[in-house]
Amino acid sequence: MKVEEKYSLLALLLMYYSALLHAGFGVEGLSYDYTASVECLEKPHRPQYGGGMILNPELNDGLKGWSVFGDAKIEERVLSGNNFIVAHSRSLRNDSFSQKLYMYKDKLYTFSAWIQVSNGSAPVAAVFRTNGGVKYAGAVIPETGCWSMLKGGLTVETSGPAHLYFESNDTSVEIWADSISLQPFTKDEWNSHQHQSVEKIRKTKVKLRAVDGGGNPVAGAEIAFRLAKRSFPFGAVISEEILHNTAFQKWFTDRFSVATFANEMKWYSNEKSPGVENYTVSDAMLQFCKQNGISVRGHNILWDDPNFQPGWVKTLSPADLRSAVDRRINSVVGRYKGQVIAWDVVNENLHFSFFEDKLSANASGDAFQKTRRIDSTAELFMNDFNTIEESGDAKSSPAMYLRKLGEIQAFLGTGAGPLGIGLEGHFGSAPNIPYVRSAIDTLAAKNLPIWVTEVDVKDMPDQAKHFEEILVEVHAHPGVKGIVTWGTWDPKGCYRMCLTDANFKNLATGDVLDKFLAMTMVGMTDVNGVFEASLFHGDYEVTVTHPTLMKSSIINTFKVAPSSPHASNQTTVLLVEVST
To answer: What is the pTM of this model?
Structure first.
């Protein structure tokens, strides 16, 4: 680029430094251990955090610290050099062993233990009896002959004594436990875990250096960043209303990169009468998303809840239902293959079993298999509620989720293709944030992409605060690969939570969202012409303003990508004309 003599060049050098990723983050404290195991092992691992506040966590000191809970009998046993505690002669589900603790309302607790049962396989839960009532920390489905990790978490409403114990509805089994851990964290420590994780997995440290044509540093240059496109997929639900409302369109497209259709791609919308299909609305919504660079999740192919079937489907014979299901899969997947990034194949098949009851126990696996044959590239998801929302919902615990997913994987065999874990995230009460984290830890051990697919919070005091707590927690988790909220705006009313009013002015929850998305940043180069920032991965517009610029400002674009240890210093040079 040729420049006249009265002008020189300002070079803005953008450098990525992966070495800066692990710098200090303010609060010092115990790091959080995100690891979990979903394997059944011959010997348990050592207790996390050395057992934390649990006395005698590995049973190396007899039964010290442990006592009978209920009417069980307890004893210490040794197997292959490993000491553990056993509850036997159980007659009630909560007959087991216990340890008395003192817990604080301002702490967040993470729990883990290794569990085995004496015969077969049976769900076992870790429970805390507190002043505020019974709290479920987590559950696992252990087997005989090997050890399974139970990971969970909890908070308490009031400080005071608590009893940890274990329970199983199957009173015929002995409950064995080892490597038991309960670790408290302060709120500041917990927030620091989130911050450190985001800095490590969602951001890259960049250094910008402004120099003139002679290589001299330019101090006092204002650098304004606008995140034009975030790499992390963040989306929301939309309905047919968006097709007819330009204000809604702008509000939505300014914020989101992913859309899920509320009802318009569901079976009861596409085939209200047998054999009469109508995709007019979903086609138009898909076209709108394409035009605006919005990815679409296919929601959903089938729904296992009997209350959400097309009316005519409920009375079909098994043979006719199988034909109708095949037609539905072929129709919707064939129509939209290659145009959606994911499919929720059989929605909510942990809580409901319409197709399993009518067709076969392998109905979900069969639907996944037929979907995969038609669409070989989209990620295929299970999608259900209460896996992170409610620690006491036995139907949808992480262990139950993984068992169902394992059945589907076994049915698919080696041709499974990309599968995903969908967690709805409909919170009907204040979130148990330690449990949310621990549940995702367990699911993430499968090394499959996890999406939180339908986040909202019931209308309650502190709704916006709880919404923010959830967003921050799940976004910070290394296993989460995308987030979709289930509240935007609908003239007929949102399911549980709206983000904006009818004039597209943010509600309190919408303000939380915009704060979370944080699309802009402004800084100033120092005396050495340097400005440092930690930026979310994505595509940026950068505006440079300086008194010596020919124009009031110059706009350039660049991309911030995850740092690679093999390419720790990447440099991009942006040239703009300045006065001399």
So the answer is: 0.93
